[in-house]
Each structure stands twice: as structure tokens, then as C-alpha cells.
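A.,

Following up on our hallway conversation. C-alpha cells first:
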């Protein structure tokens, strides 16, 4: 049975608080796990959330500020300690290669796992293409080079029972038609329709820019930073961040089905003010103000 869900490991910006750990997010995508932005304390949050090193197939780092990357050292060492049986691939800004190497080899340990490094460069790049998804990245706007990531499932076909019945196709004939594309003059297009693949995007520290919109377009789930509230929009821009209202307007205009707000400044005490401002900005889809250790299902296919 396929599982597609976001496991939230941490939601704080800059510094952890009593109730929020540094960033960390694991996306379960069927049989794979993609770990985004492992900040300090991620390894312990994994334990609390029931996430094992064996669950990780990819690590995607948006940028090399500490709240998004200081946990890399512990996570990589845990992957090796537990002798994860499959290769793990790491993606990160190529300009931060020296930071990645320092974190990877922060202390002595025994390497037992093949860690494949595929850094990101340019304005956008396709990083991986598998049977289950395409992973691509787009440059964002932050004081240090930063990238957002997007997962796109290939489109499939949805069989239409009423049209199958009209053509007298049933049982093994359905499978044969799916495999061969035609059966007794009836084509797959005659009895099915395109089922759009699911789309997920992860957008952290950034101002509004073209990359934000490219990542968000048509997503079933958008995980996006909303460090500041709208009254601090100038402060957000000065430091390369978004407000709750800005994030919500992006989601509204991009047709996002489920908006997940995260990466909150410690200056705010009421997390639900982010929800209020997002709704005030006109976003009407499903909305979650993320909390540590929550599990958020990716919306079912339409």
C-alpha cells in the first residue's frame, strides 16, 4: 500500500524554541523517503516521530544556514551507523560544497554507505527521474544561494467503467488493453482519461521571486516558509523571507490544494495568526500551520 505523507520534524526559524525544533521534514513517497533541510536536533526528532535512517533515500538541502543544515552531520553518521542497505543521494547548492564536506566529515566515523552527491547549480535543474517521480530544483532569493525542490509524478490513465462496458471490455481484456493500448479496434483513449500525477513542492528561505511561483504551480501540497506576519513585510524582505499573506497568495494564484505553512519566527506567540492572515489573503484550499511531529497526508489524487 502506497503512503504519501509529510512528517514534520521541526518548524522553527533561526533558533529552536521550547516547542519548535530546528527545521526537518521527511516526505514519504510510496517506498521512498526524502529528507528536507535537516537542522540541528533532527536525529532526535526522527526518533520521536518514528522515522528511521533506513527510511531515507534522498537528502535535499535548500541552503547552508544552520537551521537548515546543522543536523546533516548526525543524520549522515546515523545512516552509516545503521548500515542503510540502499544508496542515499544528497542534493544541495553547489556553491555550498565546502559546507557540505565539513558537515559530512565533522567528526571521525566509519563510512559503510554509498552517499551519492548531486549538487544543484544554475537557475533550475532536473535532479532525478524515476518511475515514481521527477525531482527538480529552482533557484530562490535569499542572502545565501538557496533552492526549492519539486516532485512531479508522471501522469497516468484512469479507466472509465461506463465506457469499458459500452465496448464490452471486461476482466482480462481490461489488463490487455492497458498493456497493449488497443483491443479489437478499441484504443486506450476510447475508454480512459488522463489522471494527472501528484505534485509536491518544498520552498524555504526566500523572498518572492520567479522560482517560488514555478515551484508552487499546480501543486497538490506546497510546504512553504512564512517566517513573518504581514505587518513585518519589510523586515521579511530585508532578510530574504516571506510573510503568511505572501505565501498564501502564491498558493492561491498557483492553484495549490493543500498549503502547509512553517518556519516561524520566535517573535510570534500565536501560531494561528498565520492561519488568519493566510485566509485573509484569499487562500481557500486546505491549510495547515505546521507543528513539530505532525504527520500531514498528501491530498488524494483527483
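Then the amino acids I'd put at each of the 302 positions:
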Amino acid at each position: 500500500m502506497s503512503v504519501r505523507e509529510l512528517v514534520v520534524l521541526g518548524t522553527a526559524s533561526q533558533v529552536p524554541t521550547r516547542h519548535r525544533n530546528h527545521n526537518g521534514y521527511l516526505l514519504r513517497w510510496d517506498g521512498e523517503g526524502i529528507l528536507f533541510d535537516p537542522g540541528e536536533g533532527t536525529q532526535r526528532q526522527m526518533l520521536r516521530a518514528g522515522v528511521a535512517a533506513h527510511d531515507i533515500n534522498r537528502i535535499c538541502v535548500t541552503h547552508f544556514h544552520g537551521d537548515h543544515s546543522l543536523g546533516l552531520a548526525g543524520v549522515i553518521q546515523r545512516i552509516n551507523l545503521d548500515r542503510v542497505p540502499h544508496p542515499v543521494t544528497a542534493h544541495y547548492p553547489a556553491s555550498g560544497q565546502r559546507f557540505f564536506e565539513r558537515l559530512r566529515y565533522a567528526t571521525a566515523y566509519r563510512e559503510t554507505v554509498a552517499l551519492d552527491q548531486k549538487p544543484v547549480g544554475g537557475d533550475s535543474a532536473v535532479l532525478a527521474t524515476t518511475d515514481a517521480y521527477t525531482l527538480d530544483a529552482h533557484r530562490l532569493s535569499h542572502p545565501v544561494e538557496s533552492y526549492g525542490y519539486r516532485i512531479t509524478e508522471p501522469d497516468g490513465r484512469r479507466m472509465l467503467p461506463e465506457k469499458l462496458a459500452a465496448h464490452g471490455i471486461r476482466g482480462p481484456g481490461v489488463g490487455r488493453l492497458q498493456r497493449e493500448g488497443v483491443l479489437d479496434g478499441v484504443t486506450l483513449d476510447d475508454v480512459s482519461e488522463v489522471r494527472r500525477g501528484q505534485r509536491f513542492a518544498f520552498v524555504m528561505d526566500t523572498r518572492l521571486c520567479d522560482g517560488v511561483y514555478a515551484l508552487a504551480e499546480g501543486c497538490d501540497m506546497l510546504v512553504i516558509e512564512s517566517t513573518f506576519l504581514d505587518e513585518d513585510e519589510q523586515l521579511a524582505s530585508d532578510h530574504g523571507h516571506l510573510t503568511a499573506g505572501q505565501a498564501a497568495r502564491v498558493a492561491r494564484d498557483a492553484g495549490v490544494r493543500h498549503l502547509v505553512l512553517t518556519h516561524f519566527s520566535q517573535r510570534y506567540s500565536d501560531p494561528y495568526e498565520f492561519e488568519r492572515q493566510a485566509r485573509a489573503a484569499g487562500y481557500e484550499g486546505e491549510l495547515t500551520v505546521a507543528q513539530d511531529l505532525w504527520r500531514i497526508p498528501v491530498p488524494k489524487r483527483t
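The chain has eleven helices and 18 strands. Curious whether your intuition agrees with the design.

B.
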